[in-house]
Amino acid sequence: MSAPRRRRGVDNEEVHNDERWMASYMDMVTVLLCMFIVLYAMSTVDAAKFEKLRASLATGFGTEAGETVDTAEGIVVRAEDIGKEGSLYENTVYNANADLAVKEIEDLTAVRDQISAGLTTQGLADAVNFTITERGLTVGLIGAETFFSGNSVVMTEKALAVLGIVAPVIAGIPNEVSVEGHADPIGSSGMYPTDWELSSGRATQVVRYFVEQGGLAQQRASAVGYGSARPSAANESPLNRRVDVVVLSDQSDAVRALIPGLLGTQ
User: Fold this and answer.
1) CA distance 228 to 230
2) Sign of the alpha-carbon dihedral angle for 232, 234, 235, 238
3) Shortest CA distance to 144 belongs to which of 103, 221, 205?
4) Would you give the end-to-end CA distance of the chain in angstroms?
5) How far apart are CA 53 and CA 64, in angstroms?
6) Is the distance from CB of 137 to CB of 248 less than 8 angstroms?
7) Is 216 inside a domain boundary?
8) Could you give the CA distance from residue 135 to residue 154 in angstroms, rounded to a whole number?
9) Helix (H) or strand (E) holding 265
10) Does residue 24 form part of some domain?
11) pTM to 2 decimals?
12) What is the b/e burial string over 180-214, where b = at least 16 CB atoms within 10 angstroms of the residue's CB?
């Protein structure tokens, strides 16, 4: 009689094991339900709360509503700096160039004053004129006859006296020097068939003096003859028969372009 009872116990256990899958099924259904509830909640955004969150984050990062953040460099760009005439970078570059231009004007002015003082001491102040432009400082030797014999490249005693004062000054600075000869359109005669030869010959003589007598490094010097192509006065004026000694600015084009405007404010 005991054996059948054991058999009934086994049958009951088998029936009980067949029903355990329902518990796992209910757990899975519950998890899926929770997941869909979360997804639904995430898809419904409270605009007011989101705006408060955005404003809070903006305040925390030091920005204000409507500002733009350049995440590429991690730099905060204020809205009022966008769209103005000249960006912050451009203004910074301009200010740096302006400082260099002011310094260049001061340096060229110091060279001019040093030459002028030497000429005044020797009673030669009226022999030259000075001009500061974006190119640099121009020391103009006024009237070719004052410095050269007629239709000749041989320098006069007065020319040698003037150049003797100019030479040590320009030899002591790092700038390059361009000596530029000019002539009037009347034409030359003798051994110089055109004004090109005459003007370039006179410029060359001045350069040779600077290098051979004044100590100017030859790699810093150049001689140019313009003939009568660049008159500074009426065609037949003696002012066109001139030699210009140009102390060239060594600044960049962007810096030199600011020099005329700055000179106009002085």
Assistant:
1) 6
2) negative
3) 205
4) 129
5) 13
6) no
7) yes
8) 28
9) none
10) no
11) 0.64
12) bbbbbeeebeeebeebbbbbbbbbbbbbbbbbeeb
- Beta-strand relationship, 243-248 and 136-141: antiparallel
Contact assessment for residue 221 and residue 207, using Cβ atoms and an 8 Å cutoff: yes
List the one residue out of 159, 170, 164 whose CA is nearest residue 136. Answer: 170
Pairing of strands 75-77, 136-141: unpaired
**Beta pairing class for 177-181 and 221-225:** parallel
* Rounded-to-integer distance, Cα 144 and Cα 240, Å: 8
pLDDT in tens, 136-193: 999 998 765 678 777 788 888 999 999 999 999 999 999 999 999 887 766 666 677 8
Q: What is the CATH number of the domain that holds 171?
A: 3.30.1330.60
Instruction: Tell me the pLDDT tens digit for each residue of 33-77.
Output: 888 787 777 666 666 666 766 676 666 555 555 555 454 554 555
Parent domain of 259? 105-264
Residue corresponding to tokens 């006179």: 202
Q: Tell me: the pLDDT tens digits for 243-256?
A: 899 999 999 999 99
Residue 63, domain member (yes or no): no
Q: What are 67's two structure tokens?
A: 């500002």
